[in-house]
Amino acid sequence: MTATAVTDARQNIRPGHTLQTGVDRIRVELLQYMRRSDALVFTFLFPVLLYVIFASAFSAVDPMLIVGDEQVTQPQYYLPAMLAAGVFLSGVQNLGIEIAVERNDGTLQRLAATPLPVLAYCIGKLGQLVITSIVQAALLLAVAVLAFGIELPTEPERWLTLAWVFFLALVCFAVLGVVIAQLPRSVSSAAAVVIPVALALQFISGIFLPFAILPEWLQTIANAFPLAWVGHGFRSALLPDIARFLEVGEAWSLPMVAIVLGAWAVAGSVVAAVTFRWIKRG
């Protein structure tokens, strides 16, 4: 099939068919994901393993905060942090490396020779990200409850906050993964380009260290990126309300979470749409 014929075929595809093709693509992406042992370990299980390590190491340490009869323990505090890390690693790191590798090893070039619409390809990637991230989050919460006795919130509004921050973070990190995938110029450089950026953002965004203890200039830099706000939103949903005293300004700023994540999602979508290519540039 020639390039012109493929282009014509894509233009003649009905919107409903694009959606159906995208749903079918989700199944393909899930099968490919499950066959990659590196993805399962370093993006799916890594946040769970980190949580077990941090919670075990600091479970005997004094609580981070005690106010009256309420307290915030170390295992409690690291739960939303690892939840944020999981969404971030699955979206930015895993998706970014995955698409970069597919572009540079010829996979996308082969897909370019088929009538598969770009939107259907993106639906497949996003669907795989949503499903694996939900399973990962459920596993992390289960480990926290069963292994460390963490009490999850009972108020419906907290679960609603957790849900909208979670799904807005998924969209935000998915489009950023597509954007960052344009940077590596070869298969071997994909991980070398993406992982250092992801690791640096986690350190300055309150994932491994409490955000409030970081220098003010690092907080300013981190607040320009979405990960710090995802962690803030998850803490507001999962931690006792007294945990706000551990935050910068000693208050929850959920409107800012929505604004920052929404702005990054919109900007990332525009950049991803403009820069995405089936075939890498020379």
TrEMBL record:
It is found in: Cell membrane; Membrane. Signal peptide: none annotated. Belongs to the ABC-2 integral membrane protein family. Pfam families: ABC2_membrane (PF01061). The chain crosses the membrane at residues 39-61, 81-101, 129-150, 162-183, 190-213, 256-279. One of its GO terms (molecular function) is ABC-type transporter activity. GO terms for cellular component: ATP-binding cassette (ABC) transporter complex. Residues 38-269 form the ABC transmembrane type-2 domain. It comes from Agrococcus baldri. Keywords: Antibiotic resistance, Cell membrane, Membrane, Transmembrane, Transmembrane helix, Transport. It is a multi-pass membrane protein. This is Transport permease protein. One of its GO terms (biological process) is response to antibiotic.
